[in-house]
UniProtKB/TrEMBL annotation:
<dbReference type="GO" id="GO:0016705">
    <property type="term" value="F:oxidoreductase activity, acting on paired donors, with incorporation or reduction of molecular oxygen"/>
</dbReference>
<dbReference type="GO" id="GO:0004497">
    <property type="term" value="F:monooxygenase activity"/>
</dbReference>
<dbReference type="GO" id="GO:0020037">
    <property type="term" value="F:heme binding"/>
</dbReference>
<protein>
    <recommendedName>
        <fullName>Cytochrome P450</fullName>
    </recommendedName>
</protein>
<dbReference type="InterPro" id="IPR036396">
    <property type="entry name" value="Cyt_P450_sf"/>
</dbReference>
<dbReference type="GO" id="GO:0005506">
    <property type="term" value="F:iron ion binding"/>
</dbReference>
Amino acid sequence: MALENKAIISTDFLKMFDYKTICVIMAGADSNQLRRLEDLFEPILTIARGGYVRFLPEWLDFAGNVEKDTQSIDLVINTCIEIVIDRRAATDAGTEFADALSALIDARDSDGSCSSNFEIVSFFFTIIGAGV
């Protein structure tokens, strides 16, 4: 069986590599949550390419991307919030993790309050933007 020589598009490869690295930092201790985060790569690329269209008036949606971008944004946010909720439950049940997601869940403000699920998801988006 001959192997095809396929060109590697370096920017796409690096984006995927960076994204997977961020996923390992966030949820690497839990293979199921890691896979769920990694599965969000394509929707996150969709958001990065044009997530702003969600805020444009319909008459400016020449390419018909508003619905696709809106679905991608909703999928990513909802999946990430589900992951945070699942991790909080596992942590409350006594499971210990050594990754950024657990550190964010365990972190407390000076008044003793913890970050909301959405704040943790926002942090994940910030890391993706900075890293990719």
